[in-house]
Design a protein that fits this description.
alpha+beta; C8orf32 fold; 15 strands; 42% strand; Bac_transglu_N; Papain-like_cys_pep_sf
Length: 278
């Protein structure tokens, strides 16, 4: 599948922002699961581009003049690639020649948002006691989705996996972080993934989140599981960034001086595109 994607974000402030610094992870990169066919970002400041230790494309800009509106738009085309026969959902994700990335083992350590208390670890342990392959991980993901029921507005971007697990409700971000926390607590590297999920029936599309689970750290072998939909990712998933938790893979982060009364609006459009289209 090939998609045309447009992601438009606007911040409005009752009191103007005096100065702000912004970090964007809004540019997908080509890899074993997708090929990017052109991508652009428009922002009110001069963009600089870099790669972080996870392999993400990171853009940043600074605004030094007062502003009561900050708009950021990213758009382009991404082709989602099919899995090779016989891989059973596994893929290799290693840096290109000369690219420095953290080891998959870096994704073993917990963060404040992905720490797993004893009840969460006890919940996950039976699913991975006998084996730690893709079917076992999918069974755990289904159990997480059932335990942390999808409920819009039940949590915020600051909600920790432990809190969502105890509450029994959350959104895709929470379900992904609970899955990540569960796997790490049992010695399995796992990372948070931000991206898009194409749903032609949805009235309004939003960013999505899921989890990458490491199957073999030495070979850089992973599987990608959408906890919300209880499946391996496939032809409707477009990856933006990976990280240890939501903040390290968030599409937009920043700090500001001033700017009280913030109001945020996000509009995401995803349309299938013909493979040969310009």
């Amino acid at each position: 599948m090939r998609y045309r994607i447009r992601h438009h974000t606007v911040y409005r402030y009752a009191e103007p922002v005096r100065r702000s610094v912004h970090e964007l992870r809004l540019a997908p990169r080509s890899g074993p699961l997708q090929a990017v066919h052109g991508w652009q970002i428009a922002a009110p400041g001069r963009l600089s581009e870099a790669r972080d230790g996870f392999g993400n494309i990171v853009h940043s800009f600074t605004l030094g003049a007062p502003s009561d509106t900050i708009g950021i738009t990213a758009w382009g085309e991404v082709e989602v690639l099919g899995m090779q026969a016989g891989t059973h959902g596994a893929f290799q994700d290693a840096g290109a020649d000369g690219e420095v990335r953290v080891s998959p083992l870096y994704f073993l350590s917990a963060t404040p948002l992905t720490a797993a208390p004893a009840p969460l670890r006890a919940f996950a342990a039976p699913f991975l006691a006998a084996r730690r392959d893709v079917p076992a991980l999918l069974a755990l993901a289904a159990a997480v989705a059932a335990r942390v029921r999808y409920q819009p507005n039940a949590t915020s971007v600051d909600t920790a996996a432990a809190e969502a697990f105890a509450r029994g409700a959350g959104v895709c971000q929470d379900q992904a972080q609970v899955m990540v926390a569960a796997c790490r607590s049992l010695g399995i590297p796992a990372r948070y993934v931000s991206g898009y999920f194409y749903d032609p029936k949805a009235e309004a599309l939003a960013s999505h989140a899921w989890a990458d689970i490491c199957l073999d750290a030495g070979r850089g072998l992973w599987c990608s599981i959408d906890v919300t939909h209880r499946c391996l990712t496939g032809g409707r998933h477009v990856r933006l960034a990976v990280g240890r938790d939501y903040p390290s893979a968030a599409p937009i982060r920043g700090v500001r001086e001033g700017g009280s009364g913030e109001a945020l609006s996000v509009r995401i459009e995803i349309m299938p595109a013909q493979a040969g289209a310009a």
